[in-house]
Amino acid sequence: MESKTMVWLQVQSAGLLATLALQFLVIVTPDTGLSGMVPERRDSVDIVKKESHPVLFRQKRDWLWNTISVTEEREDLIPYKIGQLRSDRKVAVRNFAIEGEGVNQTFIVDNKGNLYVKERLDREKKALYHLTARMYDGNGLLIEDAGEFAIEVNDINDNCPVFEEEYKGSVMERTKDTVVQVKATDADDPNTDNGQVRYTLPSGRTSGLFEINYETGVISSKVSNLDRETKSQYMVVVRAQDMKGRESGCIATTSVAITITDTNDNIASFTKRKYEISVPENLEVNEMIAVLELIDLDEDENKQPIFSIPSGNGNVFSTKSSKDNDCILVLKQALDYETQNNYTFTVRVDERLQFSPAENLNVTIKVTDVDEPPVFTRSVYNFSVPEEQMEKPILGRIQARDPDGIRKRIEYSILETGLPFRIDPTSGQLSVLRRLDREVEEQHMFKVKAQEENGGLASFAEVFVTVLDVNDNPPELTANDIFVCENDVRNTVIGILGALDKDNQAASFTFSLALPSSNFSIRDHGMIVILIVMRKHYQKDSLASMKNSGEIHEQLVTYDEEGGGEMDTNGYDVSILTSACNDSSLLRHPDRRSYPSMYAMVQKPHHLSQPTACKGDMAAMIDMKKDEADHDRDGFPYDTLHIYGYEGPESLAGSLSSLDSSSSGSNLDYDFLNDWGPRFKALAELYGVDGADYYHQY
């Protein structure tokens, strides 16, 4: 066999780098298997390299390379010759030396330039070796400088494909789809047929169900009729062969587990064709009656049954799915054995499949009798009766029945005691025992019990009795504080009267004076009446006439000792008091300004309402003191009321009572007492003040 190979050689010597392209004719020696490489001689080639000194021209080197390649895994005796180093230099004695990868361990050279391999070569371990050759004369002088060359190890098909993992795949039933991709590796040269793998499925049971891509190793389902319920898993053998699948190639196999996944492709059906179920009549609405089991070969997550009751009994019974997708039969409407004790209907199951027919199931429900408590004709009874009726009226009748077929006797009673009502225990007739007063209680509520005879089952109903109003209450007069002052003029309004009626009826009132009077009159304005003074009529009593009178208060203190009078000028000068009263000097201060009276300066509580009518100073003061005592939580209560007589406005001296004084001080200037002589000196020192403290503002 002959072929041509291009070999690039790089030779470096004397500072010059030359690249030689040599075309060799490869000659295979049959007896040795060695390939001799004889370079073709070309015309002279100039090699030029830029240097800092003048350019040198030199002929190409005289190396003649013999062998540069060898096949791996040769079975020749070791060492064996693979080539020879030659040069066309005419030298009597030559010595060769090599350096590089594998020298002395894998490759050696003798004095004639013969290259030998000392060990078996494996391309999968190392495919290329780089070496350098030198030639010396007999004196050890370098004749040919280093020449680089490569020894290439040629590949043979000494490795089989390998599956490096286990493969598992899955595909949904009744579909044609990709299952899994397998891959085998080959250590041989992938650029040769030795390392190129092809995949096949051996003929067998699964060959008609699955297929594999010849080059990529992708396995897919070949048919669309795979049924998980028939067979849920397949084991498929995959064969990988190198040499592009030729018979001379090496073969490896692996098994792939293929699982068929489920889809909803099976029709659900009931485990029974007919159900007969007994249900007590007192079963609660929305309670479960029974579970109707299904058979469905699909997985639970793919079961999608749809239940229905196509007949008219769908308003009494209903269906729903359980967690296992079975049918739950539910009571939708209350049962009554006495009304209907047997039901027969059909339960239908469908699935969302194009080819699935619906399946029907016959169900018979037998209602069993249960002892039930009495049933009232109404849950709430309402009656009404007028108030204050003397006779015992009958309000009405409360009725209950036994829903069972036995029809037991019913006995009635009122749960609460002490009520003004009675019920007949046999007939249920309700009546009033005594008079009812709407103003005391407008509505009565109680419960009536209906019980089967001999202490059987019982039930209860609420009863409301409304008491109707009649006009049985007189009006009640209402009025605010009414008073009249002695100086009120004619036609003064002294009060407003009103009237209330406890009865729940619209009423109009007429007002009049019980006794004729020439001093007062009443004017009727609908509901409102105004009391007016017709004429001024009063009698003034002096305080002197009340002296020694026990009618005023039992603790009235009377002082009989009198002073010297106005004529007693030895003690004090009355004219000073007179002038002080006339020009208000007693209330004057160092700024000589006139201030209001002490009582007028007292701060009144804001909650006090001043009467519109005129009152005397004493009456106003007593009202204010009384009100302060009523609203003072910290003060002591007034057990007694002390009345002090005092001189009225006719007296020039005014009142000497201490009622207008304050425990915390006074707003009067007592410095004038120093001007009244030595007899008032002690009093002036006692009540005198210093600086700005002489005045206290209320």
From TrEMBL:
Keywords: Calcium, Cell adhesion, Cell junction, Cell membrane, Cleavage on pair of basic residues, Glycoprotein, Membrane, Metal-binding, Repeat, Signal, Transmembrane, Transmembrane helix. Residues 78-163, 163-270, 271-376, 377-477 form the Cadherin domain. One of its GO terms (biological process) is morphogenesis of an epithelium. One of its GO terms (cellular component) is adherens junction. It is a single-pass type I membrane protein. It is found in: Cell junction, Adherens junction; Cell membrane. Pfam families: CADH_Y-type_LIR (PF01049), Cadherin (PF00028). One of its GO terms (molecular function) is calcium ion binding. Its main location: other. The keyword Ribosomal protein does not apply. The keyword Aminoacyl-tRNA synthetase does not apply. Cadherins are calcium-dependent cell adhesion proteins. This is Cadherin-5. It comes from Gambusia affinis (Western mosquitofish). The lineage of its organism: Eukaryota, Metazoa, Chordata, Craniata, Vertebrata.
